[in-house]
Amino acid sequence: MNTLEELRLTLERHAGGPEDSVGIAQGAEVRAGSIRRRRRVAGSAVAAVLVVAAAVGVPVAVGRKSSEPPPASVVKPHYRDASQLSVAMVAGSQFVLTNRGGDGVGQFATIRNVGDIRSPRPGEAGLNGGAELLAYNPGEYDPARLKQGEQVTVAGHPAWFSTALTFTASNVVPEGVYPAVGWEESSGVWVLVYTSDDGWWGHEAEKKAELSEVAGDVRLPGVQDVGTPVQFGWVPQGLPVSYVSIRDLPGIDPDARIGFGKSVYPTMQDLASGWALSVTATPDTNRDWPTVKADLGAPETIGGRNVWYVPRPSPLNSSGSPTGADLVVETGNCLVYLSVPERDVIGEQDLKRMATEMTVGSCTDAKGWKPPVKG
Amino acid sequence: MRFEEFVSARLAALMRYAVLLSGEREYARDIVQEVLARAMLKWHRIGAMEEPYGYVRRMVTNEFLSLLRRRRRVVTVPLEWAGEQRLTVEARPEADDEMWQVLGTLPRQQRAVIVLRYYEGLTDPEIAEVLRCRPATVRAYASRALSALRVELAPAGERKEVLS
Q1: ipTM for this prediction
Q2: Alpha-carbon distances of A134 from A131, A274, B22, rounded to whole Å
Q3: B108-135 confidence digits (pLDDT tens)
């Protein structure tokens, strides 16, 4: 047995030291700037929608901020829907896509080295760690700045290496200027492979080689409908799928996030948010779930599943809109969250009907996943 | 109090707290940075409070406890295994501390209660306010956590304090 004094000493010993705080204030400032810009974009986009919609009486797509400004006037041939993805790695590659997704503008992916994923100490073997990827739909990317960089060859096609492109924050990358290799596919898709590694200054040649190696294994063989563990037979207001983010690599806990309707925030990254409705499906292996579940009280039963409707603010969702709500569905080996930022717009009955008309596959095995909305 | 003054005075304390909550320095940095960014944007209100630290600490706690936030944290390998970080962690001989390991296996609410009670020194009603639950729930979390940690509650005086 231990004593309370030992517990206190353990906590004292393991609390962080001064070295752990280095750079946090600066990072917070950059992040705050990013949030401010998102809000400005959201505000101006909403204003634009209202003005234009009032003028012409039709729905208008909301603009976005990409890593580079889009061309002034371009033809945008249809390449893929938001619920379709095309990025893959060549067979036999040492790299895999650990996370991938996209919206109506393009796709994103996290590429990592298989050797690191299997290693208990990733990175220690000195392997090429991988990179991040953005693939813009035809007409969505202006390559002018990229083309000011150095011309290189990747997998036999012309490409450019630049150290002057600014990338917005994603789930794994803070906002910043990072080295990138980019090229245009025959489909008109522009692909950027970049790394946020802080240590690239002064090591440009090394980064160029590493990024080129990753880029050389990237393929876009053709668009495919994305599969998710949940499939809905009914969606409020007929909202279309506008965003997907999935993790379906064997060996990593799979999960999926789906955005419905237009987002007022910049998207095409894994931190995207702001949809009229979003769905998150994760394995129920979270050890906190039993505790959280106990706090939620007695569930309702819908279609034989336990369901909780939780208006915010709540411990389930501390940073979401306080006027929103989450419906949690416990089913099979999945926890499914249906989330709305405005519960007055999409209410409890809407979410419960979605849950009623929802089929759920496995949240531990991505085989058998289906498109998010029944065709 | 200006935001810069707050950060200068309290960042290290927030970071220590976040490390104890999350058990992982990089995750703690991620949480504190995100919270400070959001706090900065509404500092005109937070800075005017009597106890800004308590409010920001609650933001850190909520950020840590938010189930939906955790999904956003991609469990994949870092691009680079930072040498400095590795040295920092390995240089601490207590990394194998059994009690610390068990702390890491506790449900988050229980862990938060332990840290708030025995590191931050909050009373159960104060913890209940941070966690938005009843003091009785706090006591239940603490009881379960102490049991898992195999913390002996004797002497009797202390047992009363813990389980009252």
Answers
A1: 0.78
A2: 10, 20, 31
A3: 889 999 999 999 999 999 998 888 888 8
Whole-angstrom Cα distance, residue B47 to residue B50? 8
Is B33 in contact with A287 (Cβ distance < 8 A)? no
Measured in whole angstroms, the distance separating CA A365 from the mean position of its chain's CA atoms is 20
A53: left (phi over 0), alpha (psi -120 to 50) or beta: alpha
Place of tokens 């803070």: A174
Please, which pLDDT band fits residue B156 given cuts at 50, 70 and 90? Answer: very low
**DSSP run (H or E) holding B72:** helix B67-72
Q: Which tokens sit at A71?
A: 């061309």
Cβ separation of A171 and B74 shorter than 8 Å? yes
Task: Please answer whether residues A80 and A86 qualify as being in contact, where contact means their C-beta atoms are separated by less than 8 angstroms.
Answer: yes
- Indicate the DSSP class of residue B103: H
Closest chain A residue to B98 measured between Cα atoms?
A: A10
Which of A2, A8, A13, A14 should one mutate to test binding to chain B, selecting the residue with the greatest count of B CBs within 10 A? A14
d(CA B43, CA A157): 51
Per residue, what are the HEC states of chain A?
A: CEEHHHHHHHHHHHCCCHHHHCCHHHHHHHHHHHHHHHHHHHHHHHHHHHHHHHHHCCCCCCCCCCCCCCCCCCCCCCCCCCCEECCEECCCCCEEEEEEEEECCEEEEEEEEHHHHHCCCCCCCCCCCEEEEEEECCCCCCCCCHHHCEEEEECCEEEEEEEEEEECCCCCCCCEEEEEEEEECCCCCEEEEECCCHHHCCCHHHHHHHHHHHHCCEECCCCEECCECEEECCCHHHCCEEEEEEECCCCCCCEEEEEECCCCCCCCCCCCCCCCEEEEEEECCCCCHHHHHHHHCCCEEECCEEEEEEECCECCECCCCCCCEEEEEEECCEEEEEEECCCCCCCHHHHHHHHHCEEECCCCCCCCCECCECC
Q: Please give the pLDDT value at position A59.
A: 31
Residue A116 has pLDDT above 90, yes or no: no
B120-126 long-range Cβ contacts below 8 angstroms, 24+ apart: B120/B17, B120/B57
Write the burial class of residue A202 (CB in 10 Å: 0-12 exposed, 13-18 middle, 19+ buried).
exposed
**Facing A318 at nearest CB: one of B36, B62, B73:** B62
Tell me the residue length of chain B. Answer: 164
Beta bridge partners of A328: A308, A337
* Domains contained in chain B, CATH given: 1-91 (1.10.1740), 96-164 (1.10.10.10)
Determine the Cα–Cα distance for residues A156 and B30; give it in Å rounded to an integer. 39
Pairing between strand A2-3 and B151-152? parallel
Q: Average of pLDDT values for A85-89?
A: 97
In the DSSP assignment, the letter for residue B120 is S
The encoded tokens of residue A189 equal 């898709």
B96 has a chain A CB within 8 A of its CB: no
